[in-house]
Amino acid sequence: MSWIRSKRRALLALFAAAVMGVAAAVAGAVPAQAATARNGVCESGEFCLYYNSDTSGSVSDFAGSVSDYGSGTGCYKFVSAGAGQGQCVKNNAASAWNRTSRYVTVFYNSGYSGPIDNFSPGSEANLRAYLKNENAAHLIGVSGAAADNLEYAVYHSSSANITAYFDGYTTTSGRHEGVDIAHTVGASVYAPVSGTVVRMTEGSRGSGGLSTLAVYNSSLNKTVVYLHLDPTVGVGATISVGERIGVEDWRGVSSSGGAHTHVEMRNGRQTAAAPSVGDPTLSNPNPTSFWTARGYNICCQFG
């Protein structure tokens, strides 16, 4: 009996030692350090803007999207030591480093509009010439593969790119009311939003031959209007997401070199696009939230 008690005590002692060893190992483990936004260090998981070109000078590090960097005493500032420290980020950034796993878009205007520049995951580069010291916001895209990009949804190709964003004209007068996406003349165009075709005009090639395809989604009470393409569906057709609706063309564009598909989101049931060229007033709301709510990144401008 005493032998059994002795054996039991030994086993309990071994068990206690094992538990203490595990506890010590857990206590000694060092958890992964989470990024600390706004501390002036560009850490993994952050998007960072720099005061100078070539990711130099003072840095401003962000963990999330910012629709307006602000001005005056309440603005987002460059934080770390170096040239530009304490200056507002708005209209003062020259380069960026994307240390997130998602696409990040920098915008010329507040509220996610105007000319854009794109930073793929892990990339660091100078801002495009028209955005250097002319930056007002950035948007960290939704998680996902390249197939989630809006331009991929329209062309089903990773070679497509956004050439002008909402209110994003850089050389033409007027307020751009949609998103221009280009691939190659004759490339198939697909619908990123479902609905019913409420207008189709084929147009002809050249600046005077604008084509229009308007697709109304009654559940969203939104119309997506496509310009310049050669439509392959007619009025009354029910369109599903991903359905082929035409091919890229230059109907209403002066030359084939400017061929693209203009994709415009409008409130309510509409049959035409809003005026853009030479028109100083925006008729449409900013479409960024609409596209992100549909699961699309609005990320890439390579043209």
UniProtKB/TrEMBL annotation:
It comes from the Bacteria. SUPFAM superfamilies: Duplicated hybrid motif (SSF51261). Residues 1-34 form the signal peptide. Residues 175-270 form the M23ase beta-sheet core domain. Keywords: Signal. GO terms for molecular function: metalloendopeptidase activity. The keyword Signal applies. Pfam families: Inhibitor_I36, Peptidase_M23. This is M23ase beta-sheet core domain-containing protein. It comes from Glycomyces algeriensis.
